[in-house]
Amino acid sequence: MQKTYLRRQVNFDQFKTIRRKKRLRTLILSFVLLLVLGGAAYGVYRTGLLQTVSFVARLINPVQLKETDGRVNVLILGLDTRGENWSGLTDTILVGSFSPTEGDPVMISLPRDFWVKMDCPIALGAKKINAAYNCGGGAYSSGKFDQEKAVNFAKAKVEEVLGIQIPYYTVVNFGGFKEIVDTLGGINVCLEEAFTDNAYPIPGRENALPVYTRYEVVKFSAGCQTLSGDRALKFARSRHGTSNGDFDRARRQQQVIVGVKDKILTLDFFLNPKKVADLFSALKNAVRTNVTLGELQRGMDIAASLKEISAPESLVLDTNPDLGLMIHPPTARYGAYVIIPTAGETNYIKIHQKVRALLYAPKIQEAQGDKAE
């Protein structure tokens, strides 16, 4: 019933003149912004309020987006779960940021092996950051899992590491993610080097015996290719087969997000009301977010005002010596493979400096130019 309603509301036949091009461009930019906000479109679908972008012009006094020093930040967490299970380790920890006035999108990835201190029953005062979500939600205690507490706890840890405030969050369920990509007809990615992962975990066989039956072999060739939902998920989750392991995976996860954005931007997608309706349905199954309808309305206004949305700048907190931010300490010391800041276990000052330089580089350069004059 909801899909029928969506088809009736998203009436693209009305765009038939120069005005058609303007509105369609506005719609495309709006969808890109929604992607940056992390699935806020789900809220529109859920409440049955989806209409054409002309709906925005009728809104009165839209709310302002929560900004930190002129930027909107959103935490994106990818869960290794499917269906209605919203607890689990976060295989994807990524912060998206953009300027409401300039665009300037930025993506920052935190590897799952990042060691942090946290008060968690089984963590003994420390744990990898990918367990923060589960820890905060009570997954390691006997109580019922609380997703809001889980997100807030994980978000606080990421804010501590990066030195920025992050008002918004999106939690993505991997099973629903596959549905999103398939709804889009696949996504396009380009790979510089081929790789083979001989130990990709098979869902549902985590405890199977013999042990080797828990894994499968996945291969990706070099070059540009179109990935289905299943292949895109494997592309984003694979940890083995490349020299930089989890760091390369973080970069591929950023590639996947850009691939989804690029596919949504294609004009043909918006000329198919069924695909648009199916995308909202997929978002409903895959995403949980705290973006409100009022904030969504404001986001659409911003998207319509931007001339273009540039390719995002990206940062992965890896152990690259040229970056000088992270190191891999002796495994025996921590009982597992972890990475910590070069400045010390909980000294994030270098990371804070790098993040601020990335987010505010244009303003810093402009200020320096003004002083020089």
UniProtKB/TrEMBL annotation:
<comment type="similarity">
    <text>Belongs to the LytR/CpsA/Psr (LCP) family.</text>
</comment>
<dbReference type="Pfam" id="PF03816">
    <property type="entry name" value="LytR_cpsA_psr"/>
</dbReference>
<dbReference type="InterPro" id="IPR004474">
    <property type="entry name" value="LytR_CpsA_psr"/>
</dbReference>
<feature type="domain" description="Cell envelope-related transcriptional attenuator">
    <location>
        <begin position="90"/>
        <end position="264"/>
    </location>
</feature>
<protein>
    <submittedName>
        <fullName>Cell envelope-related transcriptional attenuator</fullName>
    </submittedName>
</protein>
<dbReference type="InterPro" id="IPR050922">
    <property type="entry name" value="LytR/CpsA/Psr_CW_biosynth"/>
</dbReference>
